[in-house]
Amino acid sequence: MNPEQSTNPNQMFVPPTPGAAPAAQPTTIAGGASQPASPQPPADPKAVQAARASAQNTLLISEIRDSMVIMKDGSFRAVITCQSINFDLMSEIEREAVEYSYQNFLNSLSYPTQILVRSQRVDIGPYIEKLSKIRTENDNMLLGILMDDYINFITTLSEEANIMDKSFFVCIPYFSDPSFEKGIQKTKNIFKEFLGSNKGPEITKIDRTTYEKASDELSRRCDATISGLMSVGLRAARLNTQQLNTLYYNFNNPETALREPLVDFSQIATIYVKKGEGPAPTPGGNR
Hints:
There is one protein chain. By secondary structure, the protein is an alpha+beta fold. It has a domain at 46-115 and 167-191 and 203-245. The protein has eight helices and eight strands; from the N terminus they run ββαβββαβααβαααβα. It has helices at 45-57, 92-107, 125-137, 141-160, 178-181, 190-196, 208-232, 241-252, and strands at residues 26-28, 34-36, 61-65, 68-71, 76-82, 114-121, 164-174, 236-238. Strands 3, 4, 5, 6, 7 and 8 form a six-stranded antiparallel β-sheet that branches. Helix 2 (92-107) packs antiparallel against helix 7 (208-232) and helix 3 runs antiparallel to helix 4 (141-160).
């Protein structure tokens, strides 16, 4: 994804295949005269570097550090991932409780948020390998036959249809300029960034006071958002720097990225109330 990872710039051009017409073939011009075409000049290294830089400019991210995404405009982002709940299998009372909790969570937000639902194809190869390993270690003949049928069914299903998985993210922004918080966006350079700019990657300069304030404010907002999601019944966690790099790499390389879970939700503690055993103690009662 980074232009520095490319090798020789001349590798961008495909050499002529064997048996193809030579480059210096006679070319017919106006008036019926023909003359041999001049050989193609070598690629300009500056032009190749400019093409790389223009591809880098399409990314609005300046840097990822300290569990934050620093944008080119000087704003900050934090990303929270969360699990889903099966709303259809709930009773009517449970649905109403979830709806009211989600409504209270949205009303408690004093900052903008973006909810993203992403669908991605699942690589089912490791799952089939795991089943095959369990099958070889099993001595039960009947259970082995059932596992063979199940493995064949999963393999056929994965070949005929795309098995998709959904991921849920909550993006929390922070703008150092309060005018951005009210929805004022600067669009005067948007076409320059995507269409006409061939400059190298821009460097976003942020002073230490603004950076520390953004870090503290995003931490506070993430804690409030995670608490609100847990009140709905959702397990949530903030992505760290490595997980953010993996997330954006998967977004920009959907075909080559390995499908790995960003967060192990089984290691996340949930807030719950447990009923105590026996009668509740009364003030001044017998001990």
